[in-house]
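Researcher: Please predict.
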Amino acid sequence: MSEHRRERIYRTEAIVIGRMDLGEADRIMTLYTPQRGKLRVIAKGIRRPTSKMAPHLEYFSRCQLLLAKGRDLDVVTNAETIDPFWPIRSDLEAFGHASHLVELLNRLTQDQQAQEGAYDLLLRSLRLLADGVDPFAVTRHYELGLLTILGFRPQLYRCVGCEREIAAEVNSLSARLGGMVCPNCAAADSSAVAASINAQKYLRTLDRAGLAAAAQLHPDQATAAEIERALGHYVRHYTERDLSSLRVLRSIREGLPAGGSYDSTT
């Protein structure tokens, strides 16, 4: 292989986090990689029935790729599956939450800014969803973990207004101010979301002890909704838009009969 060709060709591991049809047979793929961060590349001919690469470039798939540098977008020349995470595709809750994970990563990161910790977090979270671990716990752990990795970690232990230690009472999470505010300081941000003692306990357990400990808490439906709302408020501030995946999941869930399952191929 010539020196020029070696400079144009490179390999990378990647997880597929998005795709968009282009022309009659191509797709623009959004990938997240350990060393190169987020990449947008072209997979030529992938929508043809005879494409050999298509099965390796499904949503959430972890794959090994060979790419050629292009003028605007690099081109996928070969793809091999490392882990397709098949169980995610046949489970509504797992699929909906996995969609949220990649949507959040896509919105919070810039192209070609390497962040290996974010890649590892996504990979571990997809594996946990595929293994049947509680999607609520996995997703909340991922949200808080990704915020921390990217430098947006909320302050959960001291009021960001007066800097006093947070007491065991209803406090509020302020995205604009960067963490919890006590009742005396809540007026500083009218958009802050109230969090009960149990909701705060769950968030602090995630932060201090990790997913395994938080998964043992089993919040009731009201508390779970409160936790999701608080973190959703915090995430929305940094993405500067509402995320759609969990909203779509709730809509589909409400329309399914009891015991219904989800087939991503339909």
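Model: The first helix runs from residue 3 to 8.
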